[in-house]
Amino acid sequence: MRIAMIGSGYVGLVSGTCLADFGHQVVCVDKDPAKIEALNAGRMPIYEPGLDALVAENVQQGRLSFTTELKPAVAAADAVFIAVGTPSRRGDGFADLSFVFAAAREIAEAVDGFTVVVTKSTVPVGTGDEVERIIREIRPDAEVSVASNPEFLREGAAIGDFKRPDRIVVGAEDARAEEVLREIYRPLFLNQAPILVTGRRTAELTKYAANAFLATKITFINEIADLCEQVGADVQQVARGIGLDNRIGAKFLHAGPGYGGSCFPKDTLALVKTAQDAGTPVRLVETVVAVNDQRKRAMARKVVLACGGSVRGKTIAVLGLTFKPNTDDMRDAPALSIITGLQDAGAQVRAYDPEGMEAAKPLLRDVAYARDAYDCAEGADALVIVTEWNAFRALDLARLAQVMAGRVLVDLRNVYDHASVQRHGFHYVSIGRPGSGEA
């Protein structure tokens, strides 16, 4: 099928590339000429493992192209996906839908023949209704069906998630839209990926409910970790003990410094606002948002306590800046709050991240960026692991002990075990495990 993907950011680029790899003809459209120029030159605007090679292969095969010209791409398409950003709106936290509605207006002017317009962006309930109203107002003659097809991609594993999904959710109000979307995803039938067809509003809410539930699991285990520290229990064993229950599941039960990224923070806020406007507040999600915000800042205080109650004049080495490994995404990353908190307490901060330093530089002031983990640790009074990149999972602890000025290691991802770290003379602090404060 012929597909136009409006928006060549994370969701649009990954989705468009994977659809092209299925054999569809895909044109990715973006208003940013520099981004399109870079994509046409083979340079990726984001870091996602395997994406550059997949883009190159499908461009070479003639199935994938990039342009700033929306009108011809839409006019030739059987389906047009809206995959533009929906950031949190300043002031109230509601999703900013201005890019979605602007895309709908441009699509309305360009459609030619029957076209399915699909919202791929994460949007609040009722957005599809407004997209349809806009299109019909501008082009009453247009043969258009508006559908919802939310994405469930994990940064760092997005290609695998797209090609081997747990489910495909399609929100359609008529049989023609459903038929087109089933044909688009037909290549996944061999993987037996279930397609759940619902109403449009149900599909929109399903995306928010999924992210809010996962954010709740993360926040729950983080609070249990705090309790474990006070009563001498081990949060990792607690997580395993409850995760083996099939009703609960083991995923998203890893204690840490709080969630961040492009989805959970903005989507939980948007769900809270939607529910408030509907007169049915989601108190549990409101609490999740508040607890997570407080936790990220509390991690800086945890580092200060590990350093004896003061970091003034000390050098703190931070390993990992992105909100998770295998991405360069710094949006709402815990490292931002942690580093700012340490600087407010008087510390000098050095940092290293395999992919995120360029994205971090505009967001963090007065941070010295290192070449690698050991350069970062050189002369530091304490080392803090914030993001669990593979490169940080097997550090040479003897070498760290030699190059560091102090012997404090704060492990906010529970990468190491106490015995191995303490054998090298470190004061080791982790999350929710007994003995983490012992020298």
Automatic annotation (TrEMBL):
SMART domains assigned: UDPG_MGDP_dh_C
Pathway linked to the protein: Nucleotide-sugar biosynthesis; UDP-alpha-D-glucuronate biosynthesis; UDP-alpha-D-glucuronate from UDP-alpha-D-glucose: step 1/1
Record field: catalytic activity: UDP-alpha-D-glucose + 2 NAD(+) + H2O = UDP-alpha-D-glucuronate + 2 NADH + 3 H(+)
Active site: C263 (nucleophile)
UniProt-listed Enzyme Commission number(s): 1.1.1.22
GO molecular function: NAD binding; UDP-glucose 6-dehydrogenase activity
Keyword Calcium belongs to the record: no
Family annotation (Gene3D superfamilies): Cytochrome c1, transmembrane anchor, C-terminal, NAD(P)-binding Rossmann-like Domain
First-level EC class: oxidoreductase
Annotated UDP-glucose/GDP-mannose dehydrogenase C-terminal domain residues: 317-418
Keyword annotations: NAD, Oxidoreductase
Positions bound to NAD(+): D30, K35, T86, T122, E155, K266, R331
Binding site for substrate: F152, L153, R154, E155, K207, F252, L253, H254, A255, G256, G260, K324
GO biological process terms held by the UniProt record: polysaccharide biosynthetic process
Record's keyword annotation contains Iron: no
Family according to the record: Belongs to the UDP-glucose/GDP-mannose dehydrogenase family.
Protein name: UDP-glucose 6-dehydrogenase
Species for this entry: Methylobacterium gregans
Primary gene name: rkpK_2
